Amino acid sequence: MKKDEILAKARAEKSDEMENHIYDRSMIWMILGMFVCLCIFSYTRLERDMPTEDYTATLCIAIAVGNIYRFIKLKRRHYLMLGIVFAAVGILMAVIYFLKFFGA
């Protein structure tokens, strides 16, 4: 390979790394935005004695899916553990919500 080809290849790979970094950061901001909305909507529901577990279940399951996907792609166990914990909390909150919703 010539020097120009090597430099061009390095530049192309660097932009991919930058895109991945931006994508990861955007996911963090998306989850933060979802969390803020969850807090606001949960507060308004709590004021009227309405269940809030559906919001918590939605956020936890979304985070679980993201972490499980990262585990599948990167094979790092901490992503699996986070995925399992968030999935368990999300499923628990969904069950509690449906029990309250259907009056059980």
Description:
Helix content is 88%, strand content 0%. The chain is mainly α and 104 residues long. It has one domain (3-101). Helix 1 packs antiparallel against helix 2 (53-74) and helix 2 packs antiparallel against helix 3 (77-101). The longest helix has 45 residues, at 3-47. The protein is elongated and about 70 Å long.
Output mean pLDDT: 88
Approximate strand percentage: under 5%
The structure class reads mainly alpha
**Gross morphology:** elongated
The count of domains is: 1
Order of helices and strands: HHH
Give me the number of helical elements: 3
Report the end-to-end length measured between terminal Cα atoms: 70 Å
Uncertain regions: pLDDT < 50 for 5+ in a row? none
Largest sheet composition:
none
Using the CA coordinates, give the radius of gyration: 20 Å
Short description:
The chain has three helices and no strands. The chain is mainly alpha-helical and 104 residues long. The termini are far apart.
How is the secondary structure organized here?
Blueprint: H1 3-47, H2 53-74, H3 77-101
Entry keywords:
single chain; 104 residues; mainly alpha
